[in-house]
Amino acid sequence: MIGTTHPQQTIKELARQFPTGIIARALTLATKAHAGQKRKTGEPYLIHPTAVAQTLVDWNLDEPTIAAGILHDTVEDTATTLADLEKEFGGEVANLVNGITKIGKIKYRNRNQAQAENLRKLILAVSDDIRVVFIKLADRLHNMRTLAALPPQKQKRIAAETDEIYAPLAYRLGMQQVAGELQDLAFPYLHPEEDRQLKKIIPKQYGERLEYLEKMVKPKVEDILAKNLIQEAVISFRAKRYSSIYKKLIHAQHMDIKKINDLVAVRIIVKSVADCYAALGVIHEHFPPLPGRIKDYIAMPKPNGYRSLHTTVIGPQEQIIEFQIRTQEMHEENETGIAAHWLYKQKKAPAGGTSPQKNEQMKKELAWVQQLRAWQEREMEHKPAEEVIQTMKIDFFQDRIFAITPAGDVVDLPAESTPVDFAYRIHTQLGNTCTAAKVNGVFVPLDHTLHSGDMVEILTQKNKLPSPDWLDFAKSPSTREHIKAAIRQKPSLLHAAVAKKTEFRVVVQNRIGLLKDLAAAIARSHVNISEITATNATRDNFPIIKIVCEVNDRTKIEKLIIKIKTIKEVKEVIWKII
Ligand code: MN
């Protein structure tokens, strides 16, 4: 575990493991980029990205992910740009770092269910590559391990974000070990008083429990397994985490720690699935099982992929004992979840056949999609049917995007939404008075299409009213309702628009189909025609067609004139705003 090794050691160790290749080059770049920067702990900044990278090494992830782990803070915190990374390491690594940078903009300030859910979705939506989430989790793990150095206010916010966003995310990806550690790290910051209490009582309880299991249970279980030819079984004890003891205590057990049966569970690792069931049978022969407490997560894995047999039995001295029985492979997958799975799939991708790279990519995506689906199914277990449909729509991200406010709040919008939709989603007044928008710091037109992870800033003008033109591009039905409501309240808005029309006088050599061609050209420019008539007036004996359009923007008018002029038999175009 990297938290316990000396920080400087991590850098050396990483350099030793990867003397050449992209990881070595990433180390060189990060060393230069972060030179002189210090962490809040006073240590050189480089300690942080290398600790993150070491965690990714421990999770057996691939080289681009480890390199991106080393570089993950360079774009946000140093002069290095994404273009620099792309040039030096290629698109794959640059893309991973970009994902992390986007997630870094999100701030979790409003602690409520909806905001938490949105934030998790945004994280997944901007992480089109699951490896971004792995890097983010490794990043958060190291930040939590060194949280003591931050001011108390920040500690609380980050601990809450970890407990409510990142730990559940890790859990949903089947990364139990990470999820549990994140929760335990957050616990003392969120519940300092309870943490002190638990630290007083738990060690004694643990001690007593372990002694009982070691002396009264382990020898007996070893004996009965051996007699039943279940060979090479490894028996160990799993202590329940403080954070989950706390949750259990407040939820069910009236703060009585003696009533927690699984404070320490007995874990048996056997060689095969058949041995799992054999071991379960043998244990039940010797210790009566509690009814309704046998769980077969091998036949029916948990949605996050967790596999194991669980049973609770009455042990020696009438004490209640929980057993968890599994194979080594299941055990490893239970601990690292999709990270283990992801690599496993990748290695198994066949070398021949279609392009191996493509094949590999497909397998990665498959695992990712399956994981999302599993998560989704879990979410749905507790929801009524209409809500399920609604969530399905949102959760497969195909028709939703997640943009961010300058304060770091997440805003959930339909796909292809515009800054106007964004403004109305935040507040009706913001929508009504919106005059301009910046996306990721750059001015954009109000009909600009937003993407997940975009940071959107709305500029307003006091007393401004929405423009009826917005109805042409506003995406969300509720935005359109707001605009229409504003127009209903102030019909002069429409008149204002009507008042600013442009009259074109088009001098033509008349021919069949000319009016139709003119109308079509104008419609293609998305300009509404109020009137189109052949007049009796002429110019140099050529007839004049009068067209009134709902347009008053000079550039648009000029573009329109160019279009009209390309139509066959059009001689001249005269215009004025009316
Ligand atoms: Mn970081």
What does this 3D model show about the protein?
The chain is an alpha+beta fold and 578 residues long. It is 54% helix and 15% strand. The protein is built from 24 helices and 14 strands. The strands form four sheets. Strands 1-2-5-4-3 form a five-stranded mixed sheet. Strands 12-13-11-14 form a four-stranded antiparallel sheet, covered by helices on one side. A hairpin with a 5-residue loop joins β6 and β7 (410-414). α2 runs parallel beside α4 (63-71) and α3 runs antiparallel to α4. Residues 344-369 and 382-398 have low confidence and may be disordered. Manganese (II) ion (MN) binds next to loops. Manganese (II) ion binds next to loops.
In terms of topology, how is this protein built?
Layout: H1 7-17, H2 21-33, H3 47-58, H4 63-71, H5 74-77, H6 82-89, H7 91-104, H8 113-126, H9 130-145, H10 152-172, H11 176-190, H12 192-227, E1 234-239, H13 242-251, E2 264-270, H14 273-286, E3 295-296, E4 309-314, E5 320-327, H15 328-336, H16 338-348, H17 356-380, H18 385-395, E6 400-404, E7 410-414, H19 419-426, H20 428-432, E8 434-439, E9 442-444, E10 456-460, H21 477-489, H22 492-499, E11 502-508, H23 514-524, E12 529-539, E13 542-549, H24 554-565, E14 570-577
Parallel strand pairs: 2-5
Antiparallel strand pairs: 1-2, 3-4, 4-5, 6-7, 8-9, 8-10, 11-13, 11-14, 12-13
Bound molecules: manganese (II) ion.
The site of manganese (II) ion has 4 residues, from loops.
